[in-house]
Amino acid sequence: MQxxxxxxxxxxxxxxxxxxxxxxxxxAGVDVVLVDVSTQxxxxxxxxxxxxxxxxxxxxPEQVLGHTxxxxxxxxxxxxxxxxxxxxVSAGRVDGVIALGGSGGTALVAPxxxxxxxxxxxxxxxxxxxxxxxxxxxxSDITLMYSVVDVAGLNSVSRRxxxxxxxxxxxxxxxxxxxxxxxxxxxxxxxxxxxxCVDMVREQLEARGFDPLVxxxxxxxxxxxxxxxADGLIEGVLDITTTEVADELVGGIMxxxxxxxxxxxxxxxxxxxxxxxxxxxxxxxxxxxxxxxxDRQFLIxxxxxxxxRTTAEENRQFARWIAEKINRSTSPVEILIPEQxxxxxxxxxxxxxxxxxxxxxxxTLEQEIQQTADRRVTRHDCHINDAAFAEALVSAFARVSxxxxx
Length: 406
Fold this sequence. Notes:
This is UPF0261 family protein. This protein has two domains: 4-174, Uncharacterised protein family UPF0261, NN domain (Rossmann fold, 3-Layer(aba) Sandwich), CATH 3.40.50.12020; 185-401, Rossmann fold, CATH 3.40.50.12030. Helices cover 39% and strands 18% of the residues. The protein contains 13 helices and 14 strands. It has helices spanning 11-27, 50-54, 70-90, 103-114, 134-137, 156-174, 195-207, 220-230, 244-250, 262-267, 312-326, 355-368, 387-401, and strands at residues 4-9, 31-36, 96-101, 122-126, 143-146, 185-190, 211-216, 236-239, 271-273, 280-283, 298-302, 305-309, 333-338, 375-380. The strands form three sheets. It has a six-stranded parallel β-sheet, with helices on both faces.
C-alpha cells in the first residue's frame, strides 16, 4: 500500500498553495488527503472539511465555527484539531502530516502536531520558522521549514520552497525505517556540569543491557523525556540532573514546567532521582539578567548563558517542591544525595562551592520526604561526578526496578 500524508491548511486562504504541495507529493508516489482547518470561509477542494474537524471539539462544532474574533476562532479550531488528528494517527489512517501557514495557521496546527508520537513524520512550512520556534515545536520532533516569502500565492520562490517541503514529507513516509526495541529504554538527565556522572551511569547501564536515552536538562529536555514516558517509550528513569526545578521556581530561562516529575510518578516507573546542578539558575547574556538579581553571584558560562548561584533559602524551596511531588509516589523511588557537591562548579575551590547552601537543600529534602520502604532518601559521602556516586545510582536503579527487566 502507498503511504498517506495528510496536508493541512486554512484552505480558504492557502488552498492554492496546499494543492500545489499535494500534487508534488502525489507525483512522488504518496497518497494525499487535503484537510481544511479554515475558521471562516470554506473550500470545495478539501477531502476533510473544516466542519468535520470542528465536530471533534469537546463543546461541539458551534464552539469553533462562526466566531467573529479571529484569535478565538483559531484557538477553538486548534483544540478541535488536537482531538481529531491524533485519533487519525492512532487509527493508522495516516503516515505523515504536513501543514502550511503564517503565524495564525502555525499556531493552529502546532498543538496537534506536538501531540503526535515522537518519530512520526510531521513538517510545517511557516513564516515564523526563523524566529522563536519554541511555542510551535515545544519538545516534539516537528520539522519547521521557513517559507522565506509569505504563504500567499505561487511564485518563483514559494514553488521551490513548497516543492522541497513536499519531497521532504514524501521521503519521510516512503523511507521510514523500523528500529526494534530490543533493549529496555531508560531516561537520564544531564547538564554539562554533571556529564562525568551521567557518562559513567550510561556506560554501566549499557553493559547491563539497557538503552539509555540522555536528555539535556534545558527545560525542553526534561519535558521531552516525560513525553516519551507518557508515550510508553521509556521504561525507567534516572533523573540525575534536576536543575530545571531551579529555573522553574526562581525564573530562569530553562524551566522544567509545573508538572515536572508527575508523569513519571503517575506511570509508576522505576525511578531514581538526584540533585544535579540545583546549585545554579540559568539566564541568557549577562545584560539580560533581571535587575532584582543584580547583587547575586554569577558565572559567565558563555556569551549567551549566565549562571547564578542558588541561595540557601532557594534550596529549601526546591526541596519542598520536589518533596511535594515525590510524596505522591506509589511505586519504588530512591533519592540520592551527593554530600560533596552537586555539580562541577560545586566543590572545593570552584566558583559555586557553598556547603551551607547545599546542606539546606539536603536537610530540607530529608525532612520533607515521607520515607517508606518504597520511598527512600540516602546520603553518599562523595561528589556527584565521582565514580562511587555513579555506581550508587546504578545500584539504586537495580533496587527500584526489582525483577522488572529480568
